[in-house]
Amino acid sequence: MTTQDRRPPRPKPSRRAGKDGPAAAGSQARSHRLPAKAKGQTGRPRPAEAPDAEAVRLQKVLAEAGLGSRRTLEGWIADGRVRVNGRLAKLGDRVLPTDRISVDGEEVKRRAARKSRVRVLAYHKPEGEVVTRRDPAGRPTIFRRLPGIRDGRWISVGRLDLNTAGLLLVTNHGELANRLMHPSRQVEREYAVRIHGEVPDGALEQLVQGVDLHDGPARFEEIVESGGSGANHWFHVLLVEGRNREVRRLWEAVGCDVSRLKRVRFGNVILGARPLPGQWRELTDAELDELLAIAGLPPVRHPPRRPAPKARSVLRGHKRS
Questions:
Q1: What is the dihedral of CA 242, 250, 290, 294, to 10 degrees?
Q2: Is 135 considered catalytic here?
Q3: pTM to 2 decimal places
Q4: Catalytic one among 161, 257, 285, 289?
């Protein structure tokens, strides 16, 4: 599927999953959703004067050097950790190829991002791991499981909390990570959620209509009931933003207890049966090009390489309701 200037058609949340996910109920799943809203195009204002053709925003250069996402690097600049030609940098600064950049007193080795192969890994995060490079509490981190990388470093595309498992994308491309995390892209995230106990009447409708959280209103784009037995009930939910613990907080706001949470899809990338928890796989060329298109970036030229195993879709067999 090719994505250009618009979001791709949405795969429907699944009623089927493997041994780690919800079992399908005997009756047809019910879907709760709001009608799609028409979206207009927004343009960026033109600057009054064209900047130097070779000057590039400082945070972009740092991201291309593999130091982190633009959002993280903007924080470094604001905290006074970055200097350009010996002077303290500020947000909005542009730099030339001849400028010297340092972070925490160490000079940054600049490189052209286009010369490095764009890589994205699909990592299956187990419960109990944290998405950080160093944890003061000594808990295991996802980065100990990832392969080595010649230049730059791995950047996680968002986070999953300690007790949330599932799909986590990591990349060596700072601009790609920044775009996929930015709320304006509205990249879809699908989760399998197990609720312990009864769901109050009207709660599902309330969750798609909208709930007020402490950091603003939030809602699920869609909820699909996916079966369960006894006191446990499974649902698949769809979000287009990634606020901290948003899935859990939405369910808690309507009086429900989340006993298990697993992300099964991010954009066009589906977790499937492989990789297993604690393992990773490299995205296929087709997956990578589609992910770049979702982020509004051009496709890349792919060098010959051994084909990766094809992703097994958890959405297979879904019946539209």
A1: -60
A2: no
A3: 0.65
A4: 161
